Amino acid sequence: ILNYDIMARFRRRTCIILLLFILFICSIMMALKTLRPDRAGFGDPFGLGLLPELQQRTVLLDSKQNLLNRAQGDTVTRVSNLHSIAVNTMKASMSSVKKLEEELSAPNYNFHIFYYTWYGNPQFDGKYIHWNHPLLPHWDPKIANNYPKGRHNPPEDIGANFYPELGSYSSKDPTVIEAHMKQIRTASTGVIVLSWYPPGMADENGEPTDDLVPIVLDHAHKYNLKVAFHIEPYKDRDDRSMYHNVKYIIDKYGSHPAFYRHKTSTGRLLPMFYVYDSYVTIPEIWANLLTVSGSQSIRNTPYDALFIALLVEERHKHDIHRSGFDGMYTYFATNGFSYGSSHHNWASLKAFCDSNNLMFIPSVGPGYIDTSIRPWNNHNTRNRVNGKYYETAFSAALLVRPEIISITSFNEWHEGTQIEKAVPKRTGQVVYLDYKPHKPNVYLELTQKWSEKYRKEQEQWLM
C-alpha cells in the first residue's frame, strides 16, 4: 500500500510538472508571436531599416527554436543548423539591401561634380600640400596691411573654414579615393569633373597630379561613375598646347571604361572638357582650335570633343560663341558674385545658348566661404542656411531645364564649397564651421534628393 501511495503521488507530481511545463511552453510561444514584427516580407520602400529588423527576427527565431528543442529533446546539431540557415538568410538579405541601396543612388550622368586631387600629407607625400595654404594678401597694400599673413599649420590648423571627416588627407591615399567615390555615388552624381594640369605642372601651391588619374579612373569605374577633365589655366595655355593636352588625355585615358563621353543630339559620343578661366585667352586663339577652319582645328578629328567655357561676365557669351566652344558653365557657388553665377541671369543665358546651338551648364553650390585663405573676402561669403542655399540653387537651375547641372564642388575646401562630409572641430583658437544640426552627409543626401527630382522633371520636359 505504501509503495502504491508513493507511485500515485509521483504520477500526480509528474503530471502537474508536465502540465506546468506545457503551459510554460505555450506562454513562451504566445509571447514570441506577440513580439514578432508585423511585416513578414522584405519589400519596405528603399530598404530602410531592414537590417535591424532582420537581426531582431533572427534572434527571436533562435530563441524559439531552442525552447522547442528542449521540450522535444532535439539535439544541439539541429539548433546549430537552424542558426546557420538564419545567418545565411541574413547575409543574403544584406546583399539584397545593398543592391537596393545601389539602385536608389543610381548615378545621374547629367549631374557633374568638380573634384580636386591636390591635397597631400606627410604619410603619403612627405609633407602637407594645400592644407597648409598661405593666407593670400589683398591686391591693395593698404587693405592687405589690416589682415594676417603667413601659412596654415596642419593637421589642426588647415586652409579651410570647415574640417573634413577624413582629416587632412592625401589625395594619393587609395582609401581616401575609395571613400570619395562612395560618397559621390551616394549623392547620385554620375560624372566627376577632375581638376587637371598637364604632366609636370601644378597650381602654385600644389604638386603635379596627372599620375593620380589612373587610380581615380579605376575607383570611379568600381562605382559606375565617369570622369571628365577640368583643364586648369596653366602658364602659356593656348591653342597649340590645348591640342596636345586633348590628344594626350584621349590617347592615354580614352580607352578606360570610366572615361566620360557625352551623347550629343546628333548621336555622337564625344569626350567633354571644361576649360577653367577660358576668357583669359582671346577668341581668335580659341577659334584656331575649335572651329572647322582653324589652323589648329581639332574638329572632325579623332580628338574632337565638347569644350565648355567658363562664363563670368555677360560679354563672355559672345566671345564663347565666336571662339567655337560647345557650351558654357558658371562654376562659382556665389549667387550675385558674377553675372554667370547670379541665378536670375540663368534664363537669359539658357535662351542665348539655345539660339546659338550651345550647351548651358549652370553650376550650383552649397555655399561659399574662403576667409581661411582670403581673410579680407567676407563680402563674398554665402551662408549655407542649413542646406537652404543649396536647394535654392538647384531650384533655380531646374527652372531653365538644362541638359547638365554641374556642382561646385565635392572637395574644394579652401573656398568652402564642398559637399564632402565635414565634422565639428575646435582646436586652440580655431573653431571650424560644420553642418549641424544635420549629419556630416547632409549635402550628399540633398544632392541625391535633387538628382531624383531632376530625373522626374526631365521626363516631363522630354514629353
Strand content: 5-15%
Overall tally of domains = 1
Query: First CA to last CA: what distance?
Result: 98 Å
Low-confidence stretches: 31-83
Could you tell me the number of beta strands? Answer: 12
**How much helix, percentage-wise, in residues?**
40-55%
Just give the CATH class: Alpha Beta
> Tally the helices: what do you get?
13
Features:
463 residues; alpha/beta; TIM Barrel; 10-stranded mixed sheet; two-stranded antiparallel ribbon
Structure description:
The chain is α/β, with parallel strands linked by helices and 463 residues long. It has a single domain, classed as Alpha-Beta Barrel (TIM Barrel), CATH 3.20.20.80. It contains 13 helices and twelve strands. Strands 1, 2, 3, 4, 5, 6, 7, 8, 9 and 10 form a ten-stranded mixed β-sheet that branches. The protein has a two-stranded antiparallel sheet with strand order 11-12.
Summarize, please.
By secondary structure, this protein is an alpha/beta fold. The protein is built from 13 helices and 12 strands.
Task: Detail the topology: elements first, then pairings.
Layout: H1 2-35, H2 50-72, H3 76-104, E1 108-115, H4 122-125, H5 141-144, H6 174-186, E2 189-196, H7 213-222, E3 226-231, H8 239-253, E4 261-263, E5 269-275, H9 283-290, E6 306-310, H10 316-323, E7 327-329, H11 346-355, E8 359-361, E9 363-364, H12 388-399, E10 405-407, E11 426-427, E12 430-431, H13 442-462
Parallel strand pairs: 1-2, 1-10, 2-3, 3-5, 5-6, 6-7, 7-8, 9-10
Antiparallel strand pairs: 4-5, 11-12
Helix pairs in contact: 1-2, 2-3, 6-7, 8-9, 9-10, 12-13
